[in-house]
TrEMBL record, chain A:
GO terms for biological process: transmembrane transport. The lineage of its organism: Bacteria, Pseudomonadati, Pseudomonadota, Alphaproteobacteria, Rhodospirillales. Its main location: membrane. It holds the Pfam family BPD_transp_1. This is ABC transporter permease. InterPro entries: MetI-like (IPR000515), MetI-like_sf (IPR035906). PROSITE patterns: ABC_TM1 (PS50928). It is found in: Cell membrane. GO terms for cellular component: plasma membrane.
TrEMBL record, chain B:
GO terms for biological process: transmembrane transport. It comes from Oceanibaculum indicum P24. Keywords: Cell membrane, Membrane, Transmembrane, Transmembrane helix, Transport. PROSITE patterns: ABC_TM1 (PS50928). The lineage of its organism: Bacteria, Pseudomonadati, Pseudomonadota, Alphaproteobacteria, Rhodospirillales. GO terms for cellular component: plasma membrane. This is ABC transporter permease. It is a multi-pass membrane protein. It holds the Pfam family BPD_transp_1.
């Protein structure tokens, strides 16, 4: 042990620097591997199928793929549907989770603990696993093939309830009491004290919710049946199905413009996105 | 009895009523889309599949027996176990490595972080489309790459030996960057003095990692692990694009199988029985999480 300590200053510093460059190399290499699929998609989207697959750097650049892809499916409709979908889900989640989070954070009522446990259990009972019965339920409610039908199972999210309960619990009681003295009712306290205090949590939750539901696929696939309601993900999967006989360059082009809005948003607000995933994830 | 306690009691009763009114909307929604479907699934799994001539009838556990005697059930369960058994440790290990690198002083650190995290922001369906490029036989990137070393073309998605592995690769690619951010956050809460102290004590990099970093990252690891376990049931979107569970069930996972049972073969009882089994496993996981982990790990 002692000889390592005495030997440390010289070799330690040297080893430290050598490892640092090795680290950098490894990190950058892994980053290149990680981004490669996206890079290849960009490459393919701007070249003819032959040019894309030959990896010939001098192959001519073309925008033809984007035109073909854009004309191949009702994309504006899909974009609209996805936008509507994430908006409806987020609005529902904000409403349901705020009320319930507030109740669990500040009120005691018979069965509140048991109910809270039941809600937490939904963190594990994924809507994805219950697709068959949820499908039956949505059909029964007459919501099959509607945007509301895609959104409804996600609105009372256990995750959101839990997140907001934690946020509300962190608000000092003095603020609440001050508002009460000023004559606020309980709804007023929620509106004037708790919601403003939880703003960062709301923002984080909103970003995670939008990213999640922008990308969601299986449930929308099950519960939609027409172009009037299909979100982008389902539209893209139909477009890229082998039966549709579209080539890989065109599929790449379609893939790129479907992911573009979220990617641009991510690149512009990456700090907020990453913070959001963190804040929403670490409990 | 004086007036004050009475007023207090009225006040607390009012608050209790107010509180329960607040949870009512969510309880209603959760009943519609979580609690009732769970019960209905359980119930449906005990009945036979109704046909025009023979209406469905109570068959107790026959559906489960049928399920257990079906070789494709065991295949799908095995596939999912392999899928979980590989994706979880590999993506967690990679995530930790990525976080250590993304936290170290290296050039282009911001770019590196973005590169790691970007797949997380993609829809799985879109990710699968990108990977088609890699897996296409002969002309795909992988075959080109291996072709340089003299290997002949492999039909990655079309042969049973490689189909599941190809699916697993895409999942790892998608998940590692997501788990990285949790490690990254955890790493940033570890005071740098610890590392200095360890170095002064003569601990090497590896010792510091194993004896100090890993134990301190344990809560994060467990949190990520629970997430990864849930995802190993949930993440199947790429199956729809890449293999459709084939060839010959080689890459079929449980949730895809449930979907296929219910919506392609209209075999609702089998789908229900399978769903119940998944719910039992997820429920056990929940109990484990609440009972054991919550007590030992302090989440803020």
């Amino acid at each position: 042990m002692t000889d390592i300590v005495t030997a440390r200053p010289a070799t330690g510093a040297f080893a430290g620097r050598a490892l640092l460059t090795l680290d950098a190399l490894g990190a950058i290499l892994l980053a290149l591997i990680w981004i490669a699929p996206l890079v290849f998609a960009v490459w393919a989207a701007f070249h003819t199928p032959q040019g894309a697959l030959s990896f010939d750097l001098s192959a001519p650049v073309t925008l033809e793929n984007f035109r073909t892809a854009w004309e191949g499916a009702p994309w504006p409709r899909y974009f609209l549907n996805t936008t509507l979908l994430v908006t409806v889900i987020l609005a529902g989640q904000l409403f349901f989770c705020t009320l319930t989070g507030y109740a669990f954070a500040r009120f005691r009522f018979p069965g509140s603990d048991a109910l809270f446990m039941l809600v937490l259990l939904q963190l594990f009972i994924l809507p994805e696993v219950l697709i068959v019965e949820n499908y039956a339920m949505v059909s029964r409610l007459g919501l099959f093939d509607t945007v509301l039908g895609i959104g409804a199972p996600y609105m009372a999210s256990a995750f959101g309830i839990f997140l907001l309960r934690q946020a509300f619990k962190g608000v000092p009681r003095e603020l609440e009491e001050a508002a009460r003295v000023e004559g606020c009712g309980w709804t007023g306290v929620l509106w004037r004290v708790y919601i403003p205090a939880a703003k960062p949590v709301y923002l984080a939750y909103a970003l995670v919710s939008i990213a999640t539901h922008w990308n969601n696929f299986l449930w929308p696939l099950v519960v939609t049946n027409s172009n009037e309601t299909r979100p982008l993900t389902v539209g893209l999967s139909l477009f890229a199905a082998p039966e549709s006989g579209v080539n890989i360059a065109v599929i790449s082009a379609a893939t790129l413009f479907t992911i573009a809005p979220l990617m641009v948003a991510f690149l512009l607000f990456q700090r907020q996105f990453i913070q959001a995933f963190l804040r929403a994830g670490i409990r | 009895m004086t007036d004050a306690p009475l007023l207090d009691r009225i006040e607390s009763r009012k608050l209790a009523i107010y509180g329960s009114l607040l949870v009512l909307p969510s309880v209603f929604m959760l009943s519609l889309f979580a609690f009732w479907p769970t019960v209905a699934t359980l119930w449906a799994s005990l009945f036979s599949k109704g046909t025009v001539r023979r209406p469905s009838q109570f068959v107790a556990l026959d559906n489960y027996e049928y399920l257990f005697s079906d070789p494709s059930f065991w295949q799908v369960v095995t596939n999912n176990l392999i899928y979980a058994g590989v994706t979880i440790p590999v993506s967690i290990g990679l995530a930790l490595g990525m976080a250590l690198w993304a936290n170290a002083r290296i050039p282009a650190r911001a770019m590196v972080r973005i590169a790691y995290f970007t797949p997380t922001m993609l829809p799985m369906v879109a990710a699968a489309n990108l990977w088609l490029f890699f897996y296409t036989p002969d002309i795909g990137v992988l075959d080109r790459l291996f072709g340089v070393f003299g290997f002949s073309g492999v039909n990655w998605l079309g042969q049973p030996e490689t189909a599941l592995g190809s699916i697993i690769m895409v999942t790892i690619w998608k998940e590692a960057g997501f788990f990285m951010i949790f490690y990254l956050a955890a790493l940033q809460t570890i005071p740098p003095d610890l590392k200095e102290a360890a170095l002064i004590e003569g601990a090497g990099r590896w010792t510091y990692f194993r004896r100090i970093l890993l134990p301190l990252l344990m809560p994060t690891t467990l949190f990520v692990m629970v997430n990864a376990l849930i995802n190993s049931v949930k993440l199947i979107d790429h199956l729809f694009i890449l293999t459709k569970g084939g060839p010959d069930n080689a890459s079929k996972l449980i949730l895809y199988w449930i979907w296929e049972m219910a919506f392609s073969y209209f075999d609702r009882p089998s789908a229900a029985a399978m769903t119940v089994l998944v719910l039992i496993v997820l429920g056990l996981l929940a109990v484990l999480q609440f009972a054991v982990l919550e007590r030992r790990i302090h989440y803020r």
